[in-house]
Amino acid sequence: MTNFKEGLKAVKAFAFDVDGVLSSPEVYLHPTGEIMRSMNTKDGYAMQYAVKRGYPIAIITGGNTPSVALRFKGLGITDIYLASSYKMDDFKDFLFKYDLKPGEVLYMGDDLPDIEVMKTVGVPCCPADAVDEVKSVAHYISPYSLFSKGISNRTTIRGTKAVRNATVRFPTRNCFL
Amino acid sequence: MTNFKEGLKAVKAFAFDVDGVLSSPEVYLHPTGEIMRSMNTKDGYAMQYAVKRGYPIAIITGGNTPSVALRFKGLGITDIYLASSYKMDDFKDFLFKYDLKPGEVLYMGDDLPDIEVMKTVGVPCCPADAVDEVKSVAHYISPYSLFSKGISNRTTIRGTKAVRNATVRFPTRNCFL
Amino acid sequence: MTNFKEGLKAVKAFAFDVDGVLSSPEVYLHPTGEIMRSMNTKDGYAMQYAVKRGYPIAIITGGNTPSVALRFKGLGITDIYLASSYKMDDFKDFLFKYDLKPGEVLYMGDDLPDIEVMKTVGVPCCPADAVDEVKSVAHYISPYSLFSKGISNRTTIRGTKAVRNATVRFPTRNCFL
Amino acid sequence: MTNFKEGLKAVKAFAFDVDGVLSSPEVYLHPTGEIMRSMNTKDGYAMQYAVKRGYPIAIITGGNTPSVALRFKGLGITDIYLASSYKMDDFKDFLFKYDLKPGEVLYMGDDLPDIEVMKTVGVPCCPADAVDEVKSVAHYISPYSLFSKGISNRTTIRGTKAVRNATVRFPTRNCFL
C-alpha cells in the first residue's frame, strides 16, 4: 500500500465507473419500466467536495440512464461519458481536455471494461467485489463493497476519519473506506 | 451436477419465471399504488448478452405489471408472457415459435406453477429458496436466493467468474451463482 | 400453540393492521414528499388467494396513504379502513357487515391500538417485533419480523411449506412463517 | 448517562440534522435524477406525537431537497431550515422564535457541522455511526445507527418501551433506542 499512498500524492483528477462502483446492482423498477439505482450520499458529498476544490472528475460508464447523468450534474460534475463502448477513448478525451497525464489520475472500476484504463492510471482502485482480473491490477482494493450491506459501522466511520484527518483527500466510500 | 453440465451443452434458449427468480418479493409502493419490484442489473446484463448472441429468451409470469414488460423489452427480450395462467401453454408457444425441443431449454422457476414446465426442459433450475416441490425436480439449485441479502461477496464473484471463464454461457445471478 | 391451531379451524375472516404488520417502517420519500412503503408480494398473493376462496379481509390502519388503499384494492380487498382512530369501531363494522362473531376472525397487529381488538378475536397474532403488551395477548407470535431482513431463507421456506402442506390456510408472511 | 437523564427533564424543544440522523445515506435515483431518501416511519410518529404535545421541533440541514421539507411539513413540523450553511445561525433563529434557552433543547447530529450547536444544547445526542468528534461532545450515543440494518429487533422494542413506560418523552429511533 506504500505504492498506493505515494500514488495519491500525484493525483490531480478522478475517474469512476458507475455500476458496481458508485451504484448498486440492486435496482427498483419505476412504474414506467425505468430502473432506479441506489447510490450513497456520502459518495456524493465527497465528489461535490472534490469538485469545489478544483479536481476534475470523469464519470465513464457503459450505461445510458438519464437519471444517472442528472444526478452527477447536480453534484457539479461536468465530464460524464454515458454509453461508453470503449472506455480508453473517453478516458483519453478527459486527459486531453484537462492536460493530464494518466499517472495523475485515480480511477475506480470493477469489471473487465475498466482494466485497460486501470493499467495506465497512477492510482487504480476497485471495490471488494470487483472481478479477479480487476483486482489483480488494482493498487488499492477497498474493504467495502456495494454488495455488502452488513459491513460494520466501525469500518465506515474509521474510513471517513482516515480520509479527513490523514489524507485530506477524496473520500468516496469505495476508494478509501 | 454432471447431469447439469451435460444439459448445458444442449441449451439453445432460456425461459424464466419473474417473481422470486428475477425479482424480489420485497417491493415498494409508488404513490399511485403500483408496486415497484427490485431486480438485479447483473441479471439484466446477462440476458442482454444472451440476446445479442442470438439466444431466444422467454419471460413467463403470472404477474401482469407493465413496468416488468417494459424492463425486459429494454433488454432486447421480445417473448414476454404476462398474466400466464397456465405456463405450459405459453412455454409450448415459445418452443413452436423458435422450433425448439424442450430438452434445448434452460428454465428457472421457484414455485408450483413452474413445475410442469421444469419437468420437460433439459436444464431445470431454481433459486435456493424455491419451494421443495420445485427443488426436487431441479437439476441445479443456485446457492443464491433473492431473499438472502447477506450472502458473501466472494460467492457472487466466484459465480460470475465461473460463468465467464468456464462455461461462457448465460450468467444470471440465480442460475449459475 | 394447540390453542392457536384449534382457533384456526373456526376462522372465517381475517383482519390486519398495516404498519409493522404488512409494511415495513423503512420508507423512501418520493420527490413529491409522499412516502413509499415496502410490502411483500408473498403477503399479497396470500391475501388474493384468501379473497378468491371467499374469506372477507379487513385492513384497519391508523394511516391514511392512498397508495396503500390502492394496493389492497388491487388484491381484491374491499374492506379497507384508513385513518382508523379507534380500531374497535371499524372492527365491529366489519363483523356486522359479514355477520361474523369475533371468535371467527384472525387478527394481526403489533402495537397498542391493536390490543382491544386482539383481546376479542379467536386468533390474535403478531409479528416478532410487536410491543410486549401485544405479545402478551397473542395466541401466535410469528418468528418473522418486518425489521429482520437477515432472517435465514430456511425459515421462510419452512413457513411456506407448513402453511401449504398442513393448514392449507392463509399464508401471510407474518402470520404463519 | 445520569447527565443525560437529568438533561431530559429540562427539554422543551427538539432540533435534528437530517442526513445520517433521520435519513439513510443509501438513496434511490428517481428517473428525474432526484434522490429518494429512506426514512423511518417510527421517527415520523414520534415527531408527530411531540408536535401534538406542543414541543417545537427544528429541522436544520445542509441539504436542499424539497421532498424532505414536504415530508416534515406533513408531520406538522413548521421550522425547517434547508440549505443551512452555518447551523448555529439557524439554531439561534429557532431559539429566538420560541423564547428558548440552549439548555432546553435536545439536538441530534452526526457530523462536523453539528458540533458547534451540540456544544451549546442541554442534551446533545448522536447515532452510533457519528464521526468521533461528534461522539466526544454527545451526552447520549444511540446504540442504533442508520447504517446498521441488521440490528436485533429486541433492541428496537426495548428502546420503544423504555420511552413509553419510563420517560413518556420523545421516542425517535436514534435518540432513545
Explain what this protein looks like in three dimensions.
- The structure is a homotetramer of 177-residue chains.
- The first copy, chain A, is globular.
- The first copy, chain A, contains eight helices and nine strands.
- With 177 residues, the first copy, chain A, is α/β, with parallel strands linked by helices.
- Chain A has a single domain, classed as Rossmann fold.
- The two termini of chain A are 14 Å apart.
- In chain A, strand 5, helix 3 and strand 6 form a beta-alpha-beta unit.
- Chain A has a six-stranded parallel beta sheet with strand order 6-5-1-7-8-9, sandwiched between helices. In chain A, strands 2-3 form a two-stranded antiparallel ribbon.
- Chains in contact: A-B, A-D, B-C, C-D.
- The interface between A and B is medium-sized, with 23 and 30 residues.
What proportion of the residues of chain A form beta strands (DSSP E)? 15-25%
**Series of secondary-structure elements of chain A, N-terminal to C-terminal:** HEEEEHEHEHEHEHEHH
Per CATH, the architecture of chain A is 3-Layer(aba) Sandwich
* Number of DSSP-assigned strands of chain A: 9
Mean pLDDT of chain A: 78
Short description:
4 copies of one chain form a homotetramer. Chain A is an alpha/beta fold and 177 residues long.
Keyword list:
homotetramer, six-stranded parallel β-sheet, alpha/beta, 177 residues, 9 strands, two-stranded antiparallel ribbon, disordered C terminus
Element layout with pairings:
Four copies of one chain form a homotetramer.
Chain A: H1 2-9, E1 13-16, E2 26-29, E3 35-36, E4 38-40, H2 41-52, E5 57-60, H3 66-74, E6 79-81, H4 87-98, E7 105-108, H5 115-120, E8 123-126, H6 132-135, E9 140-141, H7 153-167, H8 173-176
Parallel strand pairs in A: 1-5, 1-7, 5-6, 7-8, 8-9
Antiparallel strand pairs in A: 2-3
